[in-house]
Amino acid sequence: xxxxxxxxxxxxxxxxxxxxxxxxxxxxxxxxxxxxxxxxxxxxxxxxxxxxxxxxxxxxxxxxxxxxxxxxxxxxxxxxxxxxxxxxxxxxxxxxxxxxxxxxxxxxxxxxxxxxxxxxxxxxxxxxxxxxxxxxxxxxxxxxxxxxxxxxxxxxxxxxxxxxxxxxxxxxxxxxxxxxxxxxxxxxxxxxxxxxxxxxxxxxxxxxxxxxxxxxxxxxxxxxxxxxxxxxxxxxxxxxxxxxxxxxxxxxxxxxxxxxxxxxxxxxxxxxxxxxxxxxxxxxxxxxxxxxxxxxxxxxxxxxxxxxxxxxxxxxxxxxxxxxxxxxxxxxxxxxxxxxxxxxxxxxxxxxxxxxxxxxxxxxxxxxxxxxxxxxxxxxxxxxxxxxxxxxxxxxxxxxxxxxxxxxxxxxxxxxxxxxxxxxxxxxxxxxxxxxxxxxxxxxxxxxxxxxxxxxxxxxxxxx
Length: 464
Known about the structure:
With 464 residues, the chain is α+β, with helices and mostly antiparallel strands. Helix content is 38%, strand content 12%. It has helices at 2-10, 25-34, 76-89, 102-114, 129-132, 143-149, 178-183, 195-204, 224-229, 253-267, 280-285, 298-305, 343-358, 360-370, 383-386, 389-396, 409-423, 429-444, and strands at residues 66-72, 93-99, 121-122, 157-158, 161-162, 166-177, 207-209, 212-215, 291-295, 311-315, 329-333, 336-337, 373-374. The strands form 4 sheets. Strands 6, 9, 10, 11 and 13 form a 5-stranded antiparallel β-sheet that branches. A 4-stranded mixed β-sheet has the order 2-1-3-12. The chain is globular. The two termini are 44 Å apart.
């Protein structure tokens, strides 16, 4: 299972070159005409699902034995349980879950999808959409049915088709060690909602012995790029892209202020240090740091590597009580289907996808496993989901997080370089952000990427 965290340490962001998203009336019509609504079809007594439906009594592949490959890069037990549930319904279908190291996955996968021997099903990470999208088959599911059951579908419509969706969302929150919180005399009433309150709480959680830092009140090592540079500008209305939705614009007043605040946590408040461990979550799990910033999957990381630590999560503070947006949003994705697989294998793959999307049970299990807030509307308020700290936090204001689109991996890569330049290389914030912006725009040039920040409900408040 450790492989699960190897990939999550690397990925959990976003990226798309090549395709814009967003459903228009015309594309909705295309999907509706090609894939009839479930309401227009006849379903058996054992059918599951509200709008996207699945009838387990319908025979697949005429009942004849068939075997397909399904490529993953992590979380074998999660995906094996999904295909096992499917094979229990259709014992004639064998699904071979094949794990590939993440470092090789996105090189090997497109090469395999080009030929005749590629996997019929494969896991998707939206930051590598350009690697697989030309070899993917669209879901044979009516778009209106998908939109009725799931949030965020419009973000994934390409030329009138859907090739994958988000089954769960994540964002950045504050994780804290409950034992250290209690030892500092803090209670639930001290959970900060503003950055000023946050800084004071961090000071109370910090312990120095002379000039030696013994306990960091806040440890952001390893998280500045994803949790500050690529998200906090939204709070004051500064998006990551210009109004044209193609020009990266990180060198703006909102992100400068956020990055300066993050630097001041160490340099002015002295609540942590860039040299106090490489990873804030390891330090929190070891009882050396009281708070850190991170995305929802980090809860799984703590539970796996530090099972004895009791942790809590609270919403990212803001400069005011009514931010334009709290932070950035991104999703964990459903499976891709290989359009070059045999018709029989594609039919099975399509059937597995429909089963997966129709099943509340499978969706709830997936989101609980990955600590994601489900996009399936019917389970968003389930007791199981809201018992997960990161999900409960995101649920409080789920509509006030910004999904910028499936951004290319270079966006995060360059943000990491920016953080290194500011915190370790002595570069000024202005210079580091200017360098990041220029390099990212150069990397994006020619990819065809178009962001979807303008689809955000409060986009009219963005400052360009």
